[in-house]
Write a structure and sequence with these properties.
The structure holds two protein chains of two kinds.
Chain A (H helix, E strand, L loop, with lengths): L1 H28 L6 H35 L1 H36 L8 E11 L7 E4 L12 E3 L4 E8 L4 E5 L8 E6 L5 E9 L4 E7 L10 E4 L11 E10 L6 E7 L8 E7 L12 H5 L1
Antiparallel strand pairs in A: 1-2, 1-12, 2-5, 3-4, 3-12, 4-5, 6-7, 6-9, 7-8, 8-11, 9-10, 10-11
Chain B lengths: L1 H20 L4 E3 L2 E3 L5 H12 L2 H20 L5 H16 L6 H25 L7 H32 L13
Antiparallel strand pairs in B: 1-2
The chains are: A alpha+beta, B mainly alpha.
Chain lengths: 293, 176
């Protein structure tokens, strides 16, 4: 009977492989949607994960505190030097703010792409195998999080929400290799220049800002922020600054390397931006080409 | 007692992995190193060789599925790899001297095989375009070193936890 047994095993193995391939291809196709069993698993694991991540964040917090205590003297000196500039800048900001509001009233503009409702969230896990740059937050649809919302730290933009369940949300970081990941951005300067953040150079660890009009001159050190024209992200979230400008692979438009402003390691507290202006369906890659021309 | 201990250890390792993932990538001297914690699968390999394959297969399938659903969103990847690695471990451990050192080396060898398989898979579906050299220097070696450290520290704990429970089990191996 050993022949029969091995045949049976072979058939079982074949069925297993077919099932596996079917499952993988099925889940690869619609990765944005979560079915009910997936949602239940995500909820349960997320709850357990937040229990474990709390003490971990506490420990890293203690180390951070010690670290900052050591640097206190140096920082204090630097900050004192800055303080004098600060008074002047503050006066200017209040002046500009009131002027801005008056002007807005004058033109009757009420909605602003810049305004958003911040949702505070804590990172409970980072995808441990790190092939895809993903983090998981402890806020979900119950707290008003929706798909494709922008996620940022104090430093700047870090990613966008890809999957939400009632109490967790999965964030795909901007450093992903996913070719469908786009953020409409603009370069601040005398004239704002629009382009798309599209792709990430893993070796340089810099983002690629593509589809910039060929005739426009960009300089290194220019700041790149989100433009809000993609329909989902608010305007003005810092993305990074330009380090190099070249021509793209087709020679028709320019390409700029952007060094991200946010620090992607040791993420802890993040903010999800819920834009006040009604959002457009889809991803944040709307109408920038029209704006350019 | 091991009946309760194994699932608890598995659960703790499963939840601790992403927390260690938060520290990665490590930047040392300007270059970045990805350290992937593989605590659970290394524990399951030890469970296979020092306790019983069937338990390891079951826990591998279960936690692989959780891993797939929660982190990867591709169902079938880790839920296949974890049990497969355990099966291969059981097959090879019969043919080598059976002690802690050989088990550790076998586990690390299988870890390399699993990382390479994952690299090929993610390259196939286009989620990474890193050349093989970058994969080796920035991912495979750091991961291997970190996990070897982990096994060096906890390997004997795992073994004594499994072997002392039932001395007969320590030498009984096989596919079912």
């Amino acid at each position: 009977m050993p022949q029969f047994l091995s045949n049976k095993r072979l058939i079982l193995l074949l069925i297993g492989v077919i099932l596996l391939v079917a499952l993988i291809s099925l889940t690869l196709r619609d990765r944005g949607q979560v079915s009910l069993p997936e949602e239940i698993v995500k909820e349960a694991v997320g709850a357990g994960q937040s229990v474990f991540s709390r003490p971990a964040h506490f420990v890293t917090g203690v180390f951070d505190n010690i670290d900052s205590l050591i640097n206190t003297f140096e920082e204090n000196r630097l900050l004192k030097a800055r303080l004098e500039e600060f008074a002047g800048v503050q006066a200017e900001v209040t002046d500009l703010r009131s002027e801005n509001e008056e002007l807005k009233e004058l033109v009757g503009k009420e909605e602003d792409l810049r305004e958003y409702n911040p949702i505070q969230a804590v990172v409970i896990a980072r995808n441990p195998d790190q092939w895809e740059e993903k983090i998981i937050l402890n806020r979900g649809t119950n707290h008003g999080v929706k798909e494709n919302m922008a996620v940022m730290t104090a430093g700047g933009l870090i990613g966008k929400v890809t999957i939400v369940t009632p109490t967790t949300s999965t964030v795909e970081l901007v450093t992903t290799q996913n070719p469908n990941y786009r953020v409409s951005a603009m370069v601040l300067g005398e004239d704002d220049v629009f382009g798309l953040i599209e792709g990430y150079d893993a070796e340089r660890r810099e983002l690629l800002l593509k589809r910039i009009d060929f005739s426009i001159d960009l300089e290194e050190g220019d700041q790149v922020v989100s433009s809000g024209l993609g329909g989902i992200f608010p305007k003005g979230i810092v993305i990074g600054e330009i380090t190099e400008v070249t021509i793209d692979e087709f020679g028709l438009t320019k390409l700029a390397y952007v060094k991200p402003a946010a620090d992607f390691s040791m993420l802890n507290h993040v903010v999800i931006a819920d834009r006040l202006v009604p959002e457009v369906d889809g991803e944040d890659n709307g109408v920038t080409e029209d704006e350019e021309s | 007692m091991i009946r309760f201990l194994v699932p608890i250890v598995c659960l703790v390792l499963f939840f601790v992995e992403p927390i260690f993932g938060l520290f990665s990538p490590l930047s040392i001297g300007g270059s970045f190193y990805y350290v992937v914690p593989r605590f659970l699968i290394l524990f399951l390999i030890f469970l296979t060789v020092f306790y019983e394959l069937r338990h390891a297969l079951f826990y591998g399938l279960f936690f692989g599925l959780l891993y797939d659903v929660f982190y990867i969103d591709i169902i079938g990847l880790y839920s296949f790899l974890y049990p497969a690695v355990c099966l291969i471990a059981a097959y090879f451990f019969k043919k080598i001297p059976q002690n802690l050192l050989s088990a550790t080396l076998l586990a690390l060898g299988l870890l390399i095989a699993m990382e390479v398989a994952l690299y090929l898979f993610f390259q196939l579906i286009g989620l990474t375009d890193a050349p093989a050299g970058t994969f080796l220097t920035s991912r495979l070696w750091p991961t291997l070193i970190a996990n070897a450290l982990y096994l060096g520290l906890l390997g004997w704990v795992f073994r004594s936890m499994m072997v002392t429970q039932d001395p007969q089990r320590g030498t009984k191996f096989g596919l079912y």
